[in-house]
Amino acid sequence: MQSETHNPYQPIPMRVLRAYYESNDHSLKTLELSFENATDSQAFFEAFNPGQFCLLSVAGKGESALGVASAAWEGDFVRFTAQLMGTVTKALHELKPGDAIGMRGPLGNGFPLKDWKGKNLVIIGGGCAFSTLYALTKHVHHPDHRDDYGKLTLVYGTRTSGLCMYKHDIASWHESEDMEIHQAIDVPEENWLHHVGYVPDVVKEVAPSPENAVAVVCGPPIMTKFTLPALVELGFSPEHIYTSLEKRMKCGIGKCGRCNLGPKYICKDGPVFSLAELNELPADL
Amino acid sequence: MNLILEKQTLPALLRFWQEDHDVYLPQKLGQFSHFMPLQEQTDPLLGEPHNTRIPPKSLFLPMTETLVKYTKYGTYKEVDPEVESRIIFAIRPCDAQAVKLLDTVFEQERYTDPLWVERRNNTITIGLGCHEPCHNGFCTTVGYGPFNKTGLDALLTDLGDSYMVETLTEAGEKCFQHLTPASAQTEALVAEIQLNAYNSMEIAFPTVNLKEKLEQNFNSDYWKEISESCLSCGVCTFLCPTCFCFDIVDETQRYERVRNWDTCMFRVYSLEASGHNPRPTRVERTRQRISHKFVYWIDQVNQIGCTGCGRCVRYCPVGLDIRAMLRQVQQLPLEVSHAV
């Protein structure tokens, strides 16, 4: 835990370990960052929970909130995938191995894994919002944790096959026997062996059983909007459907007011909420 | 303890305090009024029947302040807020209450804002009650009052040639330790002045069911009606003593990451990188401002997040009046289904 005198606005020093494009159009780039100080690393991993995010800081450009895309067991580094959007993400895309970068986090609540123990997991992701679900899947799929959960079903949709992230792991998960994976693209492509269609439709088609299961949805707002009711229709109760919200953020610690949603701050009280919780909040999304 | 402070001895007392403290008090600044440090020529604004234009929240959350320094090599250095011990003199009860409300934002179990805390811990706050309540203020409507003591170390009541000082904390007592005690007669007079001030204030809008009505009418045309003439200038939030939103930007010429006051009334405030904006028009933004103060604050800390200071009413360039907006809420139906 951070001491009281620690300035929560001050990034910890990190260094780019690896940087590589995640998609064939170069719109998505993955950065793996190592810690400059062992104490920072220790503090990070003591607090880290899949589903949390960090603010990556490029001096002179600003900060960008990105979900953590790595599991703790992978090693002493943290992975992020940034979509090229504005000033900060452009600067992130220009970083090379060895470059210095600042980071604040882990921030937010993350997925309530304790409550999910013993349950079947239905993980539904779309586009680059899949990053925290990737961290979740890597965590759950690890032999040390796999027995804590029941059946694992993954639905992952992207606009094109070229935009599919983490291809190496996705390919191995198709081979894996203790996971059911459904991959989808929006429009047909040659040699595509999996689903074609939008994620909500694929979810309806796959029809995962709500029995002793939780579903977690992360994707663009339009996908989430149609996937949540699809899950309710399949019989999932709002208490067992989770999603991760995104809003513009600055401070990441519930002070700057930007991500305020009713009595909650998405950065501090979220970003993960159950549909039951969301139903209590104003529709200011 | 209740003491008598003769007005003619006040300048000497302020100078005495200045030996060990930075003393801030309301002063004129061009056309503005603002809390500024005591200087040689200082002519404090103590007779004005209303609060300063710029709220004293700025003494704890400055309009602009450095959070972190960075180098061109991409490393970060902590800033030392270095706050001297301070006395804020003649803060109005609405503004002291507002600072107390803001404590709940900046001092939390999980994340505490070190800059805010440093300033709070080093400040003694001496209030000046409002024996002639201001025209636009409505502190009694929102559950506070012209002689509210929350957040104060001492409270002054104006008696013409003197003030009666009610010391409320040890620090407040120390500031006034050489004064003579007030007589029982004076105490009775002060009680009467305070009660009269309280009673002279009209209830600006009913607060019964206000929260429920605002919540239940989230999608009502009411929001469109009340925001129609809004210019999105943000002055209501900028001058609001309980508004705390800030932006964080890098000042590249100074190598500093700073925070600046920001406002939910601006379109770009919530505009996301994707182009999506959860509050794209004045309708949603007005709803956010009002709901935050009269719904969300109550959910969070069980208190209305408006202290009735009246600044947003006084300084709105198009004459939008939050009191009238909230009176209009009474016309809205209760028990329409909650919009999701």
Molecular structure report:
The complex is a heterodimer of chains A (285) and B (340). Chain A is an alpha/beta fold and 285 residues long. Chain A folds into two domains: 96 residues, Translation factors (Elongation Factor Tu (Ef-tu), domain 3), CATH 2.40.30; 132 residues, Rossmann fold. In chain A, 26% of the residues lie in helices and 29% in strands. Chain A contains ten helices and 15 strands. In chain A, the strands form three sheets. A seven-stranded mixed β-sheet of chain A has the order 10-9-8-7-11-12-15, sandwiched between helices. A six-stranded antiparallel β-sheet of chain A has the order 4-3-6-1-2-5. In chain A, strands 13-14 form a two-stranded antiparallel ribbon. In chain A, helix 6 links the parallel strand 8 and strand 9. In chain A, helix 7 runs parallel beside helix 8. Chain A starts with 11 loop residues before the first strand and ends in a 6-residue tail after the last helix. The relative contact order of chain A is 0.13. The mean pLDDT of chain A is 93. With 340 residues, chain B is an alpha+beta fold. Chain B has two domains: 199 residues, no CATH class; 122 residues, no CATH class. Chain B contains eleven helices and twelve strands. In chain B, the strands form two sheets. An eight-stranded mixed β-sheet of chain B has the order 3-2-6-7-8-9-1-10. A four-stranded antiparallel β-sheet of chain B has the order 5-4-12-11, with no helix packed on it. In chain B, helix 6 crosses helix 9. The longest helix of chain B is centred in the C-terminal third of the chain and has 20 residues. The mean pLDDT of chain B is 92. Chains A and B meet through strand 6 of A and strand 4, strand 11 and helix 9 of B.
